[in-house]
Amino acid sequence: MMLLKKWEQLPPEMQTDEVRKYYDILKKKQVSLFFKRMFDIVVSSLLLIILSPVFLVLAIAIKIDSKGPVFYRQERVTQYGKHFRIHKFRTMVQNADKGSQVTVSNDPRITRVGKVIRNCRLDEIAQLIDVMQGTVTLVGVRPESTKYVAEYTPEMMATLLLPAGVTSLASILYKDEAKLLDAAEDTDKVYIERILPAKMYYNLKSIEHFSFWGDVRIMFMTLFAVCGKDYKGDYIEMQKEYETMER
What we know:
Blueprint: H1 17-27, H2 30-50, H3 52-65, E1 71-72, E2 75-77, E3 83-85, E4 88-89, H4 112-119, H5 128-133, E5 136-139, H6 146-149, E6 164-167, H7 169-173, H8 177-180, H9 187-208, H10 212-226, H11 235-246
Parallel strand pairs: 5-6
Antiparallel strand pairs: 1-4, 2-3
Pfam families: Bac_transf (PF02397)
Protein name: Sugar transferases involved in lipopolysaccharide synthesis
Organism: Ruminococcus champanellensis (strain DSM 18848 / JCM 17042 / KCTC 15320 / 18P13)
């Protein structure tokens, strides 16, 4: 359910002054949240039907290429800190998540078919199942593993006011995140100390300036990004745009 719970019903760790600012903003946008959920249901239903042949081809290719299940089902965190098992097409060897939970670009755990799937961003389309179930929304903060949610600052907890998402502005700007981690000796440390805070800046701003039509815009930006458009050069302008809104 997309609509917000009453403040008193939020988990205790979310009932803080840092989260309250974002809660009050979203509370005034209940109509937009309702249409956001309706949009999720309609679009995910249509895409699951249209992409069903792609699902079948990917499933066969993954099973032929390596041992293991078709879907990768790691535990992630969504709205109000609820845990769920995400659906993603498996692109790595079985039990790969026993190591680091962030991936570099030339990660040896990635399978041959998995490399192609990742390059085309096709592993993410399985999350349409999660969108239909309501644990994930089309546009929202990417679902983190419990390991990284444990590192959230009090303000970052505000991102759990809404369901986790398939795509977001931060995801678009950091779509080559794996390459940023290539040179890191300790990928988890670099992710937690540098990349996570940088992405959270945009995640929190997206909640602060949330609108239904803003989500639609992110959907189109995601499509263009998958087709090759690079938005890195635009992030400074986006930051200025946010700063202007705050004045």
